[in-house]
Amino acid sequence: TSKRQAIKDAGAIAGLTVLCIMNESTTTAIAYGLVNKISAERNVLAFDLGGSNVNITVLKIEEDDFKATSIASSIHLGGDDFVNRMVEYFVRDFKRKYNKDLQDSKRGLRQLRNACEFAKLTLSSSCQASIEIDSLHEDIDFYWTITRECCEELNADLFRSTIEPIEKALRDAKIDKASVHEIVLVGGSTRIPKVQQILQDFFNGKQLNRSMELDEAVAYGAAVLSGDKSEEVKDLLLMDVVSHSLASKI
Question: Of 156, 191, 222, which one is at a domain's C-terminal end?
Answer without folding.
Answer: 156
